[in-house]
Design brief:
alpha+beta, five-stranded antiparallel β-sheet, eight-stranded mixed β-sheet, 31% helix
Length: 473
């Protein structure tokens, strides 16, 4: 029993009862357009035609071309980008990006039309400037005294959070709590977003054969990874996401164990330089940034960084891309060899919220949409996103000690009773004979004298009762 506890002192079991879906937050949904520039701001195809004619781009156009190389796939086709020069990646991305109103044109939340500006927020992620629904406020995710202002300087902000991983929604948080919570299953309590893109802005040199958007589903307190955790949404298509929450709650007694023993961290245990909240995604993001800075002397524009950290230019794109693979190779090799790799030490969160996504696609016949969409015209290619939970209740998991104190005492008592015929009464008898019994046997001579005096006194009283005239005589 001890060896079993020592090898793996933590276990994950099913919860005792079903939980209503309203106790888990709605996921954050991050949408990124594949088109990174408005044609009025920068024409990528025209810039390539100028380069192919051995002509020279003006300084402003070349700066924008170099910026797009970080989020598009044409880098290897342009020899101009092999030269290292100063870039203004964040400023150029902001200048070329479509605004929130231009991308997310219509929103429904809980079957009511809601202004998209009140639901969606701009975010800087690895795919450029994107738009997120139901994410925590930026100043609740990042440490504003450490992170670069590039991650914080967005106009629309989220309300104050009423939810944490360990404790869920605070007591008294009602239907308007944030992050937004579902009331029931189905689209009646979900979110619908119409994302649009102008067909004239489509650039095959940037997005390849794909059109439309990339989107990710993640927890509200996590940053979005759009490079490796995303789904595609083509234009003129509708996508329906059927969600099932995967919730793991942590027992408070786990805090008595070290993080290495329980193989997880609570959100307030491990310090992250750029993030206020610990979770595995944020930890990995910071670890990759630190490793890239050590390997390349700079970081990708979307990696968490301080104000004075250098952003990699186009000539270093191969370096920061290979740093991902190099870091993961070291981690996997250490795991195969049975060695510890402490470069990141990004253990899972003890309490976690994840979402299993069932996805289905259909054509978006927007001309037959039951509600009139005034913003739709022949120059616009719309797409539709439905996001809702599939069931009204869910089964949660509990991360707890494999053998607690009560269970250890119970199992030890059972073993003793089975193998020795002992019980708690036997233990009490042992204590009595070893301790209390010895106290009763102290000072035997003194006890003997006291008993003799008492016996003499009793004989004298008996004599008086037998011969009352003896004293007179």
């Amino acid at each position: 029993m001890y060896r079993k506890w020592d090898a793996n002192p933590v276990t994950i079991v099913y919860g005792a009862e079903l939980e209503p879906i309203s106790t888990v937050p709605f996921p954050a949904v991050t949408i990124c357009p594949l088109v990174k520039s408005r044609i009025e701001e920068f024409n990528l195809t025209q810039a390539f035609e100028v380069i192919n004619q051995n002509a020279t781009l003006d300084e402003r156009s070349e700066s924008k071309l170099r910026t797009l190389a970080h989020v598009c796939a044409f880098k290897d086709e342009c020899h101009v980008l092999k030269i290292s020069r100063k870039e203004n990646v964040i400023l150029d991305l902001r200048a070329m990006a479509h605004s929130l109103k231009e991308v997310i044109a219509h929103c429904w939340w809980r079957s009511s039309v809601v202004p998209c500006e009140s639901l969606m927020m701009e975010r800087l992620v690895d795919d450029g400037i994107c738009y997120t629904f139901n994410s925590l406020a930026l100043d609740e995710i990042y440490r504003d005294n450490e992170i670069s202002p590039d991650f914080l300087n967005f106009t629309n902000t989220a309300p104050t959070s009423d939810w944490t991983r360990e404790y869920g929604y605070r007591p008294g948080a009602g239907l308007r709590a944030y992050p937004n919570r579902p009331l029931t299953n189905g689209i009646i309590s979900g979110v619908i977003m119409v994302a649009v893109m102008r067909s004239v802005d489509h650039e095959p040199l940037c997005s390849g054969t794909y059109t439309g958007f990339k989107f990710a589903v993640h927890a509200p307190d996590e940053v979005a990874f759009m490079d490796d955790r995303f789904y595609r949404l083509d234009t003129l298509n509708a996508v329906i996401l059927d969600l099932t929450p995967n919730v793991i709650k942590a027992s408070g007694t786990l805090r008595n164990l070290s993080p290495l023993k329980r193989n997880c961290y609570f959100s307030d245990e491990k310090y992250l330089r750029f993030f206020k909240i610990y979770n595995q995604v944020n930890c990995v993001s910071e670890c990759i940034s630190n490793y890239t800075l050590a390997s390349c002397g700079c970081v990708k524009f979307s990696m968490p960084r301080s104000t004075d950290t250098k952003i990699c230019d186009v000539a270093k794109i191969d370096c920061y891309r290979s740093s991902f693979l190099t870091l993961y190779e070291k981690m996997v090799n250490a795991y195969i060899a049975g060695e510890s790799f402490n470069s990141c030490n990004c253990l899972p969160s003890c309490s976690s919220v994840d979402y299993e996504v069932g996805i289905s696609h259909d054509n978006f016949n927007f001309h037959e949409f039951p509600m009139k969409l005034d913003f739709i015209n022949d120059k616009i290619d719309p797409s539709l996103v439905f996001v809702a939970f599939g069931d009204r209740h869910y089964t949660y998991m509990v991360r707890r000690e494999l053998i607690g104190i009560n269970r250890a005492v119970a199992e030890l008592g059972g073993l003793f009773a089975l193998l020795m015929g002992s019980s708690m009464l036997s233990l009490a008898e042992i204590v009595y004979f070893c301790c209390i019994r010895q106290l009763r046997r102290e000072q035997p001579k003194k006890n003997k004298q006291i008993r003799a005096k008492r016996a003499h006194s009793r004989r004298h009283r008996v004599h008086l009762r037998v011969d009352p005239w003896a004293n007179h005589q």
